Automatic annotation (TrEMBL):
One Pfam family recorded for the sequence: BPD_transp_1_N
Keywords: Cell membrane, Membrane, Transmembrane, Transmembrane helix, Transport
Full protein name: Putative D,D-dipeptide transport system permease protein DdpB
Originating gene: ddpB_1
Annotated localization: Cell membrane
Entry's Gene Ontology BP terms: transmembrane transport
Amino acid sequence: MFGYVVRRLLQLVPTFFGATLLAFLVIQLAPGDFVTRLELDPTQDRESIANLRQQLGLDQPLPVQYAKWLSGIFQGYLGLSLSYKTDVWSVIGQRILNSMVLVVLATLMIYLIAIPIGVYSAIHKYTWPDRIFTVLAFLGLAIPNFFFGLIMLFLAVWLNDLTDMRILPIGGMTNEFLHLGNMTRAAQWLFPFALGGTLIYAALFWSRSRRGQTPTFGVWLGLVLFGVSSLLMLAPLLQGPGLPERLPYTESPLWARITNVLWHAFPVVIVVGTSGLAGLMRVMRGQMLDVLSQDYIRTARAKGLSERVVVYKHALRNAVIPFIAGIGGLLPGLIGGAGLVEVTMAWPGITPALLEAISAIDVYVIMGLITITTVLLMVGNVISDLLLAWVDPRIRYS
């Protein structure tokens, strides 16, 4: 295994050079450069334009430009943004964090919901619940994300007008002002339910553990969700009553800002995660049906093992192997953003910044995003291969 890891790490070096060089050349194939727009303006001084091109290094040959950019990469410098006249990381850093909020929440939602539903549908195939889940999955796959985002915005406007309250946000990531009084009163009303749910699931967890039984996935999920909800409400309960009713976002306490971002992210996460949830649910169902028909599953049942042990210990472990293989795409997906959904729902993520950089031919912003994505993709593939070897004992690397 150690030799395999070393070989894979060495293979990353030529892969990185090849990917970045190809991306740099493809970007340069576009006609013109960042300064070309100024040359088309007859009011601009030709000498000033030439000096600007020289200052930005755009007058040098492509190999020299690539070599200078590559030398900066080895020093942790992604280059200079031609549009903002500042370090590339200062331009894309916050945008990446904004996109990660969406992608991390959507990924958690997809895996926590799709895998249990897929397992349930496989065990109860061709029943009414299975057929309902199948129809919902096909709808989720058929509706494009950007169109679903428009539907969600329409739903938010309609619901807010109907109730004369802001039930759902309409675009953006934060509010200019936060109503801390409303947050505190909502926490006071919801906290008893969250605490009650935590105690109920904790009792179920303790009861099953005492009898020597493994707590089910539903017990684990309920305990985590209700427990985290209870903890999130402690801050507004303790600090909220002593704060003003209304504060600017930048002056509000941390718990209020986190709550506001999560509130704005809720409809966007639903839109982003719908297609992934539908697809993963169908794949999980198909994998479980295939594994449950294998000979070793029939042998396990013939030995008298309980159905829960057969399904969750023997079948599920082999059925999730394709999902572990897909982990390599999760890391670049974290900064890849939510695509056109970010544009549709006015979320300040990485996709709007990338579209702006492409429009302005801001080469080093584009290259910075490609570089980070390439590195995360390579690292993710190595991690995925190692996890596959750990989960599936049939895989051996010599």
